[in-house]
């Protein structure tokens, strides 16, 4: 089966974390987000993948290569100008041919059953089948209203609470039929939610919405990125960590009370880096009386500058020693990215 990986995003809201790094290359458990998606595709039988690129395409190509390490055969198509979500897929029409194709964002974190999505699509002969996910607070997302047969009747984009009519969130994961692809114009901006879906509904085509069990998160903000890191470490998001997800030689680690697991991260400017980390964590349950302390029911994360040298000390207290170790490494990765961005 074939899939299109949308990997052209800048991640504007994540720039405090990523700097100039393309959003699909943001690390999660030691691998870029897009690499986790490629591995997910491979597990569900999508072994031919084309990545649609726009922002810093060379960086993405260098990081993902030919896809063999993730179990897929990966090709690339570049946009000379921004074409929108649907236009980017149309730009890959030569790769798709006349087949049904799955479309997925390279900057989402998920472990959904993508094989089930294709099965339901073919069973109903839908023009488009959308993967839906239930969210108790869906204000940041587009919502899909379905009938008893799972046919989509309406969309509501990023509503206020007064306009919330369902908990079914549009994940941005779609299976497109050839007739849906044919409805997308070539060489001009065209969006799925704003342009293609209303057009197909107007034509009386079947847009199928399939609620899928599992984990899904749009890694669009520093807060959602942090939550994905913790969810992956705690096992709510099932991912394959990079085997080398270990401390680098420049880091010092110690075990035992009262510090728990501790890393030392050398840096150029500890005050400036702490400033960036502080801004990044403003939305979290954090206090700043003694460095940065992030409190949660199962753990405490403490980041502070060293006294005698330009370095940060990252300490995690948690009942689970392996969880503490991994959370410390995730915090280190974040700090390294922030330092590289200034």
Keywords:
TATA-Binding Protein, 19 strands, 342 residues, single chain, 31% helix, alpha+beta, six-stranded antiparallel sheet, 2 domains, seven-stranded mixed sheet, Spore Coat Polysaccharide Biosynthesis Protein SpsA, Chain A, 11 helices
Protein described:
This protein folds into two domains: 228 residues, Spore Coat Polysaccharide Biosynthesis Protein SpsA, Chain A (Alpha-Beta Complex); 95 residues, 2-Layer Sandwich (TATA-Binding Protein). The protein is globular and about 70 Å long. The longest helix is centred in the last third of the chain and has 20 residues. About 4% of the residues have low confidence. The strands form five sheets. The chain has a seven-stranded mixed β-sheet with strand order 5-4-1-6-11-8-12, with helices on both faces. The protein has 342 residues and is α+β, with helices and mostly antiparallel strands. Helix 3 links the parallel strand 4 and strand 5. It has eleven helices and 19 strands.
Summarize the structure.
By secondary structure, this protein is α+β, with helices and mostly antiparallel strands.
């Amino acid at each position: 089966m074939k899939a299109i990986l949308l990997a052209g995003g800048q991640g504007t809201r994540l720039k405090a974390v990523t700097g100039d790094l393309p959003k699909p290359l943001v690390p999660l458990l030691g691998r870029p987000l897009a690499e986790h998606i490629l591995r997910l595709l491979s597990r569900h039988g999508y072994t031919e993948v084309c990545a649609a690129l726009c922002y810093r395409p060379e960086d993405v190509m260098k990081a993902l290569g030919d896809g063999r390490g993730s179990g897929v055969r990966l090709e690339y198509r570049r946009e000379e100008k921004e074409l929108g979500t649907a236009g980017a897929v149309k730009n890959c029409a030569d790769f798709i041919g006349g087949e049904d194709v799955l479309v997925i964002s390279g900057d989402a974190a998920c472990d959904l059953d993508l094989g089930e999505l294709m099965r339901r699509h073919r069973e109903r002969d839908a023009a488009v089948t959308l993967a839906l996910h239930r969210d108790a607070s869906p204000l940041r997302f587009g919502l899909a209203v379905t009938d008893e047969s799972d046919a989509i009747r309406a969309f509501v984009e990023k509503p206020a609470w007064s306009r919330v009519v369902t908990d079914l969130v549009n994940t941005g994961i779609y299976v497109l039929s050839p007739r849906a692809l044919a409805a997308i114009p070539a060489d001009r901006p065209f969006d799925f939610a704003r342009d293609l879906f209303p057009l197909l509904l107007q034509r009386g085509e079947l847009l199928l919405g399939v609620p899928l069990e599992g984990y899904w998160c749009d890694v669009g903000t520093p807060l959602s990125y942090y939550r994905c890191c913790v969810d992956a470490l705690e096992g709510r998001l099932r991912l394959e960590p990079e085997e080398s997800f270990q401390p680098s030689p420049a880091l010092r680690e110690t075990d035992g009370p009262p510090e728990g697991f501790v890393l030392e991260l050398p840096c150029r400017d500890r005050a400036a880096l702490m400033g960036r980390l502080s801004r990044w964590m403003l939305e979290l349950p954090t206090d700043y009386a003694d460095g940065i302390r992030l409190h949660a029911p199962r753990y405490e994360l403490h980041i502070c500058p060293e006294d005698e040298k330009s370095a940060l000390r990252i300490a995690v207290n948690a009942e689970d020693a392996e969880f503490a170790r991994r959370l410390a490494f995730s915090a280190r990765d974040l700090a390294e990215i922030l330092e590289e961005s200034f």
